[in-house]
Amino acid sequence: MSQPFRLGVSYTSTVWPDICIDFRDDHLLLQANAPLDAMSSALWGGGHMRATHFINWKVPLTYRCEDPTLMMRDQLTEWGYPVADSIGLQTAAKITHASIEEEAGDRYRMICCATAGTRNSARAGKARETFSAYRCGTINIFLLMDAYLTPSAMINGIITATEAKAAALQDTGIVDEDGDAATGTTTDSIVLASSQNREYGEPHQFAGAATTLGNAIGRLVYKAVHEAIVTQGEA
């Protein structure tokens, strides 16, 4: 079991103590001591930016907002977080059941935090009903690492993480509305953030499954997403 918020409210990484994760009633706050270089599909702060605060906000199942970006910004301000240095995701999954995996290895220290609800599971690559806008993220993955990566390696790492997420969904038997194996949900989001620590020397140029870094990404994401999925229905 690696779900510290089912009993506690704060977690400090054992492999990278500069990272703390706190449960704050309606959201999780992942905080770094120094800005991290991030790439993400986040609602707030998405794309490429530097950030110290990473938020996973649990919104109610009845959530309906015509401007979720503005709503996220206002909520960050209400919480007192630095808006310009924050990346914000939204979810309807249980944040108490967030799963955390971490390890240190070949020129990296890595932390993965995932929440996973699968009510709107879907299979990419097939025709389905679509919408111009949709509700907030359901499987949210945060990958924070003390490492030095090229920009292409960061994107490669997001690919590897996505493949691992899909594998976890398939191994837990999650299917879409037609009964086909799901590859995700319709509203997933991911953040990959790195310290870009030059003390490691040469950067990681790749993060595919056969590299030390990519293999770690895949394993940690798989374990975190798998656990978050299978425990989502538990109290």
Automatic annotation (TrEMBL):
The keyword Ribonucleoprotein does not apply. InterPro entries: AdoCbi_amidolase (IPR002808), CbiZ (IPR052209). It holds the Pfam family CbiZ. One of its GO terms (molecular function) is hydrolase activity. Signal peptide: none annotated. Keywords: Hydrolase. It comes from the Bacteria. The keyword Hydrolase applies. PANTHER family: ADENOSYLCOBINAMIDE AMIDOHYDROLASE. This is Adenosylcobinamide amidohydrolase. It comes from Aneurinibacillus migulanus. The lineage of its organism: Bacteria, Bacillati, Bacillota, Bacilli, Bacillales.
